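> call design_seq(struct)
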C-alpha cells in the first residue's frame, strides 16, 4: 500500500472519529436541556418535561433520518430555494473526508437541539401530544428547509450568510418556533396580574438547573468544535483549539456579566440569570467561534450575558411567558451573535447577516405559527385549567417526579 493511501485512510478515520465524538458531545446536550428545564419548572410538571425531552430527541432522530436530512443536504443544487429531496443519506464517494453516516449523526443532534429550545418555552401548560406532533413537523420539514438555504448550499449561503455552528440556524430557529407557540398558548395561570403585575414562579430544583447548564456548557465544545469538520491536519487542529478556547471564554464572560448586572440592578445574585448568562455567551459565540481573538470572544459573551437579563425582563413586561428564558437566550442572543460576526470575520457582511437572520426568523416563525394554529384548532395545544393547577405529571404521565412530596390519602 502506498504511503499516500495510508495517510489518506488515517485522516479519513481520524476525521470520522472526530465527527462521531463531537456528535456524542452534542447528544449529551439533550441531557443538559432536560436537567435545566426540570430544574426551572415546578415539581408537579417535572416528569412531563422530562418525557418531552426524551421523546423529542427520539422523534428528531427518526424524522431527520427518514425525511429531514434528505431535504437539507442530499442531491441539492447550489443557490436554490427548493430542495430536490434526494435518496437516504447519499452514496459514499472515494476521497471524502469522513463517512456520510458520521455526518448524519453530527447533523441529527443539531436538529434535536433546535427542538429542545422549544420545550422549555412552552413548559407547564402545553399538551404533551400536541408538542410531540409539532416536534415531528419541525424536525422533518421546517428546520431542514432553512438548513438547506444555509448549510446545505442554498440561496442564503450563496448570498454570503455566515453562521459557523448555528447561532441562527439552530438556536434562533428554535426560539422562533417557541415564540410562535407561546403567543398562541398564552401565559401560565397566575403569572401576570390584571393590572400588569408580574408574579415570579420559581423553579423546583436549582441543583438540577445548574447541572443542566454545566452539561450544556460541556457539550457545546462538540457543538462548536465539531463544526470545524476536520481535525487531521495542522491548520484544522489549531482551529479546533481556538474554537474551544473562545467558546469557553464567551460562556464564562456571559455568566460573570449576568451576575454583576443582577447585583447592580436588584442587589441579589440571581442564579437563574447567571445560568442563562453562561448559555447566552455560548449561543452568541456559536455564530463564529473561530475568527475572534480570545478577548473579542470575552466581549461577545459579556454583551450577551447582559443582553439576556434585560431581554428576559423585557419579555415579562409584555407578558410573553417563557419559564426558562429560552426565547431570550437562544433567540435574542442568537440574533446578536449573527450580527456581530462581521466585526471579526472580514468575509462576512452586515447585509448578508441581517438577510439570513430575517429569512430564518420569518420562515420558522411563520411556518410554526401555522402549524401551532392548526393544532390549536383541531386537537388543542393547552391543557385545561384543572390540569394546569394539579400538574401535568399526574394527567399526562401518571408518575410524580418527587413522590415523597405527595401526600397519600
Amino acid at each position: 500500500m502506498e504511503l499516500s493511501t495510508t495517510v489518506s485512510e488515517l485522516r479519513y478515520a481520524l476525521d470520522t472519529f472526530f465527527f462521531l465524538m463531537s456528535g456524542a458531545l452534542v447528544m449529551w446536550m439533550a441531557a443538559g436541556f432536560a436537567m435545566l428545564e426540570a430544574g426551572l419548572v415546578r415539581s408537579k410538571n417535572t416528569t412531563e418535561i422530562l418525557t418531552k425531552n426524551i421523546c423529542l430527541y427520539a422523534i428528531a432522530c427518526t424524522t431527520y433520518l427518514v425525511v429531514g436530512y434528505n431535504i437539507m443536504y442530499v442531491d441539492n443544487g447550489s443557490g436554490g430555494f427548493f430542495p430536490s429531496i434526494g435518496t437516504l443519506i447519499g452514496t459514499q464517494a472515494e476521497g471524502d473526508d469522513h463517512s456520510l453516516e458520521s455526518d448524519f449523526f453530527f447533523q441529527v443532534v443539531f436538529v434535536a437541539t433546535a427542538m429542545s429550545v422549544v420545550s422549555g418555552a412552552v413548559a407547564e401548560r402545553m399538551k404533551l401530544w400536541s408538542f410531540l406532533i409539532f416536534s415531528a413537523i419541525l424536525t422533518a420539514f421546517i428546520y431542514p428547509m432553512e438548513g438547506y438555504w444555509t448549510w446545505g448550499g442554498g440561496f442564503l449561503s450563496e448570498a454570503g450568510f455566515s453562521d459557523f455552528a448555528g447561532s441562527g440556524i439552530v438556536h434562533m430557529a428554535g426560539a422562533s418556533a417557541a415564540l410562535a407557540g407561546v403567543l398562541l398558548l398564552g401565559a401560565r395561570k397566575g403569572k401576570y396580574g390584571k393590572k400588569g403585575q408580574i408574579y415570579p414562579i420559581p423553579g423546583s430544583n436549582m441543583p438540577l438547573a445548574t447541572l443542566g447548564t454545566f452539561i450544556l456548557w460541556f457539550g457545546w465544545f462538540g457543538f462548536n468544535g465539531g463544526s470545524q469538520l476536520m481535525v487531521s491536519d495542522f491548520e484544522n487542529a489549531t482551529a479546533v483549539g481556538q474554537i474551544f478556547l473562545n467558546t469557553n471564554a464567551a460562556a464564562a464572560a456571559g455568566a460573570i456579566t449576568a451576575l454583576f448586572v443582577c447585583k447592580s440592578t436588584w442587589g441579589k445574585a440571581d442564579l437563574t440569570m447567571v445560568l442563562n448568562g453562561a448559555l447566552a455567551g455560548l449561543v452568541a459565540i456559536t455564530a463564529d467561534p473561530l475568527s475572534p481573538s480570545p478577548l473579542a470572544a470575552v466581549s461577545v459573551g459579556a454583551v450577551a450575558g447582559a443582553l439576556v437579563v434585560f431581554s428576559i425582563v423585557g419579555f415579562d413586561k409584555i407578558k410573553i411567558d417563557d419559564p426558562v428564558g429560552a426565547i431570550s437566550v437562544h433567540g435574542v442572543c442568537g440574533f446578536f451573535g449573527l450580527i456581530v460576526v462581521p466585526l471579526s470575520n472580514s468575509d462576512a457582511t452586515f447585509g448578508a447577516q441581517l438577510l439570513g437572520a430575517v429569512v430564518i426568523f420569518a420562515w420558522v416563525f411563520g411556518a410554526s405559527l401555522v402549524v401551532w394554529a392548526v393544532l390549536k384548532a383541531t386537537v388543542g395545544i393547552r391543557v385545561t385549567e384543572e390540569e394546569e393547577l394539579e400538574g401535568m405529571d399526574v394527567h399526562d404521565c401518571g408518575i410524580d417526579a418527587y413522590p415523597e412530596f405527595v401526600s397519600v390519602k
